[in-house]
Amino acid sequence: MGCGSSMPVVPGEDVPTKTVYLSVKGESKSVAFSSDCTSQEVREVLKSAAKLNSSPYILNEEPGSQEMEVFQSVLTKVGDEFSKAFKMREFQEDISERLRKVEARLQMEGMKAVEIGNTSRNTGAETSC
């Protein structure tokens, strides 16, 4: 990070300003502040220009945390697939039960048709005698 300073006077003001030129990630920036600024104000302006975090705390992520996120994601997807599989199993059982009921009804209807046919033959045979 390179820096330089100069003391130009801002037109219309009696207080001289200082300008600090910064190079942040290959991008040139200039920061102007008055000569009566405190060191804390200068630090804040420089942090803002460099887009640095002004928090005194540093967050260190463990290297395994990303692996844990991937593992959690995979685990969630596997759980969803199991849920879908169980729902599919329940759906298949429901369809099978309905088919059994329809088959039973058709069988009963077939038996009724045979019984009606036998009854009509019996009554037809009785009337022809």
Structural description of this entry:
- Residues 1-6 have low confidence and may be disordered.
- It is rod-shaped and about 130 Å long.
- The protein has a three-stranded antiparallel beta sheet, covered by helices on one side.
- The protein is of the alpha+beta class.
- It starts with a strand and ends with a helix.
- It has helices spanning 39-49, 65-128; strands at residues 5-6, 17-24, 27-34.
Q: Rg from C-alpha positions?
A: 44 Å
Cross-sheet strand order for the largest sheet: 1-2-3
Q: Helix/strand-derived class?
A: alpha+beta
Largest sheet: 3 strands, antiparallel
Number of strands: 3
Average pLDDT number: 78
Shape: rod-shaped
Helix segment tally: 2
Low-confidence stretches: 1-6
Notable traits:
14% strand; High affinity cGMP-specific 3',5'-cyclic phosphodiesterase 9A; 129 residues; single chain; 2 domains; three-stranded antiparallel beta sheet; alpha+beta; disordered N terminus
Briefly characterize the structure.
By secondary structure, this protein is of the alpha+beta class.
Summarize the SSE layout with pairings.
Elements (H helix, E strand, L loop, with lengths): L4 E2 L10 E8 L2 E8 L4 H11 L15 H64 L1
Antiparallel strand pairs: 1-2, 2-3
